[in-house]
Amino acid sequence: MKKNILTGCLLIVILGLILIYHIKDRNLNDYEKEELDKECIAIEDDEIERLNDYLSIFARVEQQSFEQNNVSDVNLITFGLFYNLWYNDKVDRYVTDELVSETSLNFFGKSIGKHQNIDELVDYADNKYDISEIQMPESFGLYSEVDNILNNGDGTYTIYSTNYIEYIYDDSIHIKSYNRSIIKKVEEKYILLEYINYNK
Q1: Does residue 12 have a pLDDT over 80?
Q2: What was the pLDDT predicted at 116?
Q3: Nearest to 131, CA basis, from 76, 94, 171, 185
Q4: Is 84 helix (H, G, I), strand (E, B) or coil?
Q5: CA 144 to CA 139: how far, in whole Å?
Q6: Is 112 in contact with 120 (CB distance < 8 Å)?
Q7: Which domain of life, per UniProt (predicted)?
Q8: Which of 63-72, 102-111, 146-155, 161-170 has the lowest mean pLDDT?
Q9: DSSP state of 40
Q10: Residue 67 has what pLDDT?
């Protein structure tokens, strides 16, 4: 009789654990499911800070997703324009296509195949982009923090990160999105090979 009671209790506990696991699994978003059970590699704190700063740039320009080594010219141009608008004090109304190409090569390791108009706010003519219609953001309230780093064993690393947005008016911080990036470290700089956005 006692054996049957113990067996019954054990069964209830196991079923309860299975139920909890499935409930937890259903509540995970795609980012968390992919990141789950991945083993983080050891990395120095100052390197983490560098990666946070690096990935925050892509968060602030609201970088669009692209699969490994498959980033479009429009994506590269958009990044080059917004990066120079926000981070380059020498840029005012115009950004030369040469500067956009240099930015693309520096961050993505890729040259731009064809310079072109990207939307109605940006006019491309005479080897330069007119960005006077683009408004500067009120603040750099977007930033990124590394959650996990995996060594892919081929000289590249997969980085899982969270993008946060800080609201100045009430000092609140909220999760905006999640990202999976693949980067390659070349000497002292990083090259972005893939960038995938996940909704929170």
Answers
A1: no
A2: 92
A3: 94
A4: helix
A5: 15
A6: no
A7: Bacteria
A8: 161-170
A9: P
A10: 93
